[in-house]
What we know:
This protein is of the alpha/beta class. It has 3 domains: 231 residues, 3-Layer(bba) Sandwich (FAD/NAD(P)-binding domain), CATH 3.50.50.60; 122 residues, FAD/NAD(P)-binding domain; 106 residues, no CATH class. 21% of the residues lie in helices and 26% in strands. The chain is built from 11 helices and 22 strands. Strands 7-13-8-9-10-11-12 form a 7-stranded mixed sheet. Strands 1, 2, 3, 4, 5 and 17 form a 6-stranded mixed sheet that branches. A 5-stranded antiparallel sheet has the order 19-18-20-21-22. A hairpin with a 6-residue loop joins strand 11 and strand 12. Helix 1 packs parallel to helix 7.
Amino acid sequence: xxxxxxxxxxxxxxxxxxxxxxxxxxxxxxxxxxxxxxxxxxxxxxxxxxxxxxxxxxxxxxxxxxxxxxxxxxxxxxxxxxxxxxxxxxxxxxxxxxxxxxxxxxxxxxxxxxxxxxxxxxxxxxxxxxxxxxxxxxxxxxxxxxxxxxxxxxxxxxxxxxxxxxxxxxxxxxxxxxxxxxxxxxxxxxxxxxxxxxxxxxxxxxxxxxxxxxxxxxxxxxxxxxxxxxxxxxxxxxxxxxxxxxxxxxxxxxxxxxxxxxxxxxxxxxxxxxxxxxxxxxxxxxxxxxxxxxxxxxxxxxxxxxxxxxxxxxxxxxxxxxxxxxxxxxxxxxxxxxxxxxxxxxxxxxxxxxxxxxxxxxxxxxxxxxxxxxxxxxxxxxxxxxxxxxxxxxxxxxxxxxxxxxxxxxxxxxxxxxxxxxxxxxxxxxxxxxxxxxxxxxxxxxxxxxxxxxxxxxxxxxxxxxxxxxxxxxxxxxxxxxxxxxxxxxxxxxxxxx
Length: 498
């Protein structure tokens, strides 16, 4: 007799298949199971973690977990201060990340993050079929067929949680001489080497920070100037933890930061020569380096999905998505995790929301509810609210709700007004509320402007028309006690609170 494969979810027919065992795939599968939706979860990896099984190479994550927050650990409000733990329904499934941190930093290391994800899977007893590589996709009538290394999976719906994980190096002469960020070796192997890093985003500065001790010279170059997150007052830009190379440049310590395009890389004897063209009026240069590394990001590994009808956009080839993270061009295909950046939201103040774990874990939970209701008839409870409690409830959410804090300008708490009075619609994508139809209602979220000022924003829908009510900021972000905010919101809801 042949060996029996004890792994869960053998090839076959399923209502829904989730692809990927990174944070997005784990969270959406966990939430689907809590809603009773039958599905398979498959992954090419041999263990949970996704990209966190390899990256980042140096330093720590850019997302914090604060063990000593001003709210109880394990509470819903604590999720605002713990950006890394996945969201559990049971106490033992919540706030796992602090248990694996060594106390030296509020930013977990990569191994600590990987361990937290594995522990979440273990405690939740989440079944995953590892070592099952998704290779191709085709249609068979109204169903999808996923071709994998283990065989074919047939399903009516698919959630792809495959990250934005395929290395991207732009076209340039000599591209074959350029390594990519993913090829980074142990730091000591760069001792005394002259490095040229293509790209001035976080991954480029991560490499520069991690190799400052080892490299004899580091040049970072890209056409546009580097922006710091402390200048943009947002997550856009180089995070504060990676600014050491910038200081080194000002101090003349052997780091050089150029605003220049890369015209080509060529071999010159035992070294590489990088030709640059200045984009800021400076000099065109030919710079010798021992190694050239492209820190130029990643693209979404969609394989043949575009040929199947999934529309994409931008240099990262993100799939265009609806506010509920369904392919905008191919119904039945959904996305979870970092790839959610393909649903950009309202973009009222620039980029809304985030593709990082602290935001997309909430997206995944909302997506699971949407799939359960829309395709499987599992209707989530919508508790009734007394009219007199609506305004206070909304201001309470603006003060404490982690979904609103971690997905500013992207997620909102919605209250709808039905024939029997107001009821809680739950956390929803703000764009879905503003652009959608439905009963009269109000959605409140948080928005930050270019100056870093955070304030609640309420959107009131009456007979299909939506009006915006901006509330005042508070220096301590305590909105629930604002008499002015309460009065303004009450006036905006006049006629609905009855």
